[in-house]
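ok trying again, last paste got cut off:
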Amino acid sequence: MNAAPSQDLTARQALERMLELIRGIHGITDVTPELLQRTMGKDVRRIEEGHFGFGQRLPGNWAFSVERYLLQPHDVPQLELGFDPIPNAEAAAVTACEPDYAAFTSSLEGMGFARHSACGEHGRWLYDAFDKPGIHVEVHPMLARAKDDADAQGTRCVQRVLLR
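nice, full thing came through this time. structure:
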């Protein structure tokens, strides 16, 4: 069931609705302002042709945004969901995330996406990519740990989801 437009979402709801959106499309060009608004339950702002989305504050000086835009220089459509601290404000430590990185990426695999890791310099893991015909999804991690326990391993959360 979708929420009425403009009702605040939790981080969990944003991620679950992103999975719902991915499940219902065959490619990034299927994502229209109307589909995004219907799936996410938020009023979508049109910025210019091919560029639309919305953003919302979260507790602890965090925010998330969902934005579809044309990646330059070749006008490749991309959809991005990202969680970021509010600029110029001290963000609270992320202490929990649901669904966590493992649950979110497992859901993508359950939809038939093939998983592979993307690595940077010296083989350092950066993110996991998921592919099936017509859709490429990148899921970027963020480590959540309690502010008072900097030595704790922490939980791996989803920081960013990119669809191309």
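cool. Residues 11-163 form one domain. The chain has three helices and eight strands.
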